Each structure stands twice: as C-alpha cells, then as structure tokens.
Amino acid sequence: xxxxxxxxxxxxxxxxxxxxxxxxxxxxxxxxxxxxxxxxxxxxxxxxxxxxxxxxxxxxxxxxxxxxxxxxxxxxxxxxxxxxxxxxxxxxxxxxxxxxxxxxxxxxxxxxxxxxxxxxxxxxxxxxxxxxxxxxxxxxxxxxxxxxxxxxxxxxxxxxxxxxxxxxxxxxxxxxxxxxxxxxxxxxxxxxxxxxxxxxxxxxxxxxxxxxxxxxxxxxxxxxxxxxxxxxxxxxxxxxxxxxxxxxxxxxxxxxxxxxxxxxxxxxxxxxxxxxxxxxxxxxxxxxxxxxxxxxxxxxxxxxxxxxxxxxxxxxxxxxxxxxxxxxxxxxxxxxxxxxxxxxxxxxxxxxxxxxxxxxxxxxxxxxxxxxxxxxxxxxxxxxxxxxxx
Length: 390
Ligand SMILES: *Cc1c(COP(=O)(O)O)cnc(C)c1O
What we know:
Layout: H1 3-7, E1 20-24, E2 27-30, E3 35-38, H2 41-44, H3 53-65, H4 76-89, E4 93-97, H5 100-118, E5 125-129, H6 138-142, H7 147-150, E6 160-163, H8 168-172, E7 179-185, E8 187-188, E9 194-195, H9 198-211, E10 214-218, E11 242-245, E12 256-260, H10 262-265, H11 281-296, H12 299-320, E13 325-331, E14 334-339, H13 343-352, E15 355-356, E16 358-360, E17 364-367, H14 375-389
Parallel strand pairs: 3-15, 5-6, 5-7, 7-10, 10-11
Antiparallel strand pairs: 1-2, 2-3, 4-12, 8-9, 11-12, 13-14, 14-17, 16-17
Helix pairs in contact: 3-11, 4-11, 12-14
C-alpha cells in the first residue's frame, strides 16, 4: 500500500508512517508482512496484547446477540460492566462514554452540576494543571495545559485556571469561592510522564475536603492496571470524587467512563446528560471481558513483577548514553525517557528496526507496552534502542 495514496483522503492531523494489517500477542504485522514488537499498545489501549482468544470470543458472541440498543434500556453487559467498574474503582456510580474525551466532558459537567445545586450563582471554576492532557473537544481542551493545543480554538469554556503539577501551593493560590473542581491526571502522560508526589495527591485530597471542592482524577491513560494497581490513585490510598477512564478499559473497543461517589453522582438527574452509543452492549461486553481477563490472567501481579525489570533495563540504556538520555521516570509500565534530541528521530529509527514506540511531547519516548509484556520483549526493545542511540 502506498502511503501518499493513503494520505490523500484524510484531514492531515497525523503524520502516519506504516499501514498495519494484523496483530498477535506483543507483535504487529504491516501489509507487507513485516513484524514489529509493539511497545506502544495503540497509545496504552491494548493492555491484553493482540488476538486474545477469550476476548475475541466474548465480542463475537455479543455481536451475534445484540450490538446496540441505546441507553433508553439496560442490557446484561452494561449492568455487569457497571458493577465491575464500581468495584474496581471504589466509585458508586458510572456513566459509560465512547472515548476519553467524552469522559472528561461528563466529569466537567458533573462537577458544574454539583456546584450549581449548592449555589445557583456559582461560576463553576475549575483548576487544571500545566502540561496536562485531557482530550481535544472544547471542554476537554479547556482544561488541557498546553497553550498551543488550546490557542487556535479559543474562546473555550471559561473559568479555568492552571496550576503547577506537584506544587500544592500553586493550586491553593488559585482557589476561590467559585472553585468547583480540581482536575488532574494521577500520572501525567502526554505532557511528559510526570508522576504525582504523595504530598501533592494527599494534599489535594485534604484541600478539596476542607473546601468542598471536587477532586477529579483522570485515569484514562494511567489507569486499568498500568502502574500496578487497577487505578493509580489507589497507590496513594485516596479516592477522588470523580474519576475518568478509557484507553485500556475496552482494550480496543472504543469505550470510556466517568464515575463518582454517591453524593456527587446524585447531582445528575434524567435529562442532564446522555449518549446514543455510550456503553452499548458490544462496548460493555468488552469491558466485562477485560475485567474478567485481568483477574484470570493475574495482570496486576504480572505488572508488579515485570515493571521493575523495565525500569532497570531503561536505566541501563540511559547510563550507556548519558549525552542523549537526560532522565528515565514513571511508574509501573508507564515510563518516559527524556532525551536531549528529538524523540521522533529515535522512534523512526526504532520503527525501521521493527520496534514500535511512541513519544510524549517532542523530547520524551513513552513506554506503554501491552501489560502482558515479558522480559524477552523488554530485552529486544532495549537492544534496538541501544543500537539506535549509539
Ligand atoms: C488519551 C487521553 C485522553 C483523551 O482520550 P481519547 O479517548 O483520545 O478521547 C484524556 N486524558 C488522558 C490522560 C489521556 O491520556
């Protein structure tokens, strides 16, 4: 397949380089049959790797039964998925969406509705973080902390201010009578793989409790087992008031969610929010299968076993190339390698050699492999990375 030909009919928002055809386990194959080791998981989505038999079987059975019916009705998969999700997250009620961005939209609306119910005059202000990423729709973009993503699309929603991640004082300074929510990724992804400090997360929890502000944690990328707990806030022993999920939630079938504790969830009533597809039987059958397979395949235990190996090997690569590698940081199977050179050059060269990697920002390589990754895959990736950096 010809790339130039393929490019002709797309609005040019991505620079694509390969035409992929199929996947199996940790590997992808392009239309020419070339094999690639995948360390990007379709941007942290394909946690179970490719072609998981039981996952595929579950979807096929659901396709035969019912694909869509709208949210005017319940279905067995949607009921079960909601139960699984609430159990895993510690939230009381969930709303399924089609994407991460829509989960963020829902979370913002829920926070505003909660504030509105308390005080009809509330301006519903939100504090977000610099370098955050929450999505591309107007609401999600409004709380995304990268100026050049936002600027061309202004005016966005009002009442948003940006604090410094991991700087509690900078958040405190922005709090007003009208602050209804503080939104952040529990581990910043797109913005450069920055984990939150314990003091920051627990300090925010306390601040929110004192002022009845809602703590909104975006777990779209760092959730679903990637850092070794089902959701990363569980590493800090706290619960948010609202949280969002997507990416690995359906392991490839488009589905997201926003969820909340009872007192907050109760702010929404029929008519306040909706979606035609969101959480349809096919999507929620995928969610059910994902939770069941995480349990059956002991995915969390595996992440906790294998992640230290990834960190060790990445640090070895970093030590061998002190001129090009500035730092390795992250949590679990969500790691970043900050370079002194453009990440794209390294990623393109790795792709040539059959290893798929993605970036975060311009100078960081992001490692978000399928959670089934084994030592042999990490070895091969690090060998290729070492060759390329040399
Ligand atoms: C990917 C991502 C989103 C947006 O999700 P989409 O499914 O692309 O809409 C939001 N927040 C975070 C942290 C993400 O990584």
